[in-house]
Amino acid sequence: MNLKQLSELLGLSQTTVSRALNGYPEVNQATRERVLKAVKETGYRPNKAAQRLATGKAGSIGLVMPTETGHYSDVHFGEFLSGLGEAAVRHDFHFVIMPADPQDEIGALRRLAASGNVDALFLAYMRTNDPRLAMLKSLPIPFLVHGRSLGSEPDYPYLDVDNEQAFHDAAKLLLQLGHKRIALINGPEHLDFAIRRRMGLATALCDKGLMLGPEHMHHSIMTDEHGQLAMERFLRLPERPTGVLCSSTVLALGAVRAINQAGLKLGEDISLIAHDDVLPLLRPENFSVPLTTTRSSLRAAGSRIAERLIGSLQQKADMPEQELWKAELIVRASTGPALA
Questions:
Q1: pTM of the model
Q2: From edge to edge, which strands make up the β-sheet containing 292-295?
Q3: CA dist., res. 263 & res. 20, Å (int)
Q4: CA-to-CA distance for 192 and 81, rounded, in angstroms?
Q5: Is-contact 144 95, C-beta < 8 A?
Q6: Residue extents of the structural domains in the chain
Q7: Residue 314: CB partners within 8 Å, gap ≥ 6?
Q8: Which of the 8 DSSP states describes residue 98?
Q9: How far apart are CA 36 and CA 42, in angstroms?
């Protein structure tokens, strides 16, 4: 089934069918619905090259992925991309990934925007006073940020999790259970989400007249190996922490391993709360001691970002400019009262 055959089947001109498929406002709703129904029934798929020539649109979302020798693959980013891809497929969009040297992200974003291969960009791994924001605002195509940037005016479109509140709530639970020495196994310290999670814990401790000391903090890429190394260091302290917050279930996997190897019982000798990105292969309820978590799905975030970007390209009026999701605190067996 090609465009000519579809137009003959409907008794419409090829121009009308094409405009209906591409969202032109001059096509009335009844005609648009009739065309979309025929597309679904016949399995027609538009020629992307012809569609691009007709509309000037690529039908693609773009992102820059920093990569270099020794760069770790990130299961969290993979889960986010899965959500992005699911939404793109629903709307017959592609997404284009441009690998780039980490020192040339701004240049790579400019080149990708200028290539004509994408209609919109999204940005991740936000930092304090992120210089990429000003550059994106200067481009003639829409963009969306996953996260936020401390120190920057919040005048850009974003979707973020309230990381500060999530870790404040998690710390508050441990404090209510009598814990006073609470440690943090966090992501890279220059990333915005890690900064906000540290702030949430520090504020909760301060409310009780306590402090988050440097000996109780660890920042690294979020792998199980780094989670184990951090927990082993905490357990060697003269006064080890009785409660620990982890920025990922991946970090928690290593932390729990260190706790077990030390002969300690999770939820009794030491309590642990992890942030759960809802990774399908690492469910907190399947740990030997089910983990208490702050829960927010990365896949759902990826899907929502794609829906918002595509919606903005289709000029849908109901798309918000900014969203801040609240994480859900789910209490399981890895948290218990502090030992006297």
A1: 0.84
A2: 217-219, 182-186, 243-246, 271-276, 292-295, 328-330
A3: 66
A4: 19
A5: no
A6: 1-35, 60-161+299-325, 163-296
A7: 23
A8: E
A9: 10
CATH of 163-296, one of 3.30.70.260, 3.40.50.2300, 1.25.10.10, 3.40.190.10: 3.40.50.2300
Nearest Cα to 185, choosing from 203, 206, 170, 165? Answer: 170
Q: Which amino acid, one-letter code, is at 20?
A: A
DSSP run (H or E) holding 100: strand 94-100
Neighbouring-strand partners of residue 64: 98
- For the chain, the C-alpha Rg in angstroms (whole number) is 24
Q: List per-residue pLDDT tens for the chain, 340 residues long.
A: 788 888 888 899 988 887 887 767 788 889 988 988 888 888 777 665 555 545 556 788 999 988 866 666 688 988 999 999 999 888 888 888 888 888 899 999 999 999 888 999 999 999 999 999 999 999 989 999 999 999 999 999 999 999 999 999 999 999 999 999 999 999 999 999 999 999 999 999 999 999 999 999 999 999 999 999 999 999 999 999 999 999 999 999 999 999 999 999 999 999 999 999 999 999 999 999 999 999 999 999 999 999 999 988 887 767 889 999 999 999 999 999 998 6
Residue 164 CB contacts under 8 Å (≥ 6 apart), including other chains: 196, 197, 199, 200, 203
Extract the tokens encoding 141: 């195509």
Structure tokens at 43: 């399995």
Rounded Cα distance between 119 and 201, Å, is: 39
Is 170:155 a contact under the CB 8 Å cutoff?
A: no
The CA distance from 120 to 310, in Å, is 8
Identify how many contiguous H helices and E strands the chain contains and give both numbers: 12, 12
Class of domain 60-161+299-325: alpha beta
CB 219, CB 278: distance < 8 Å: no
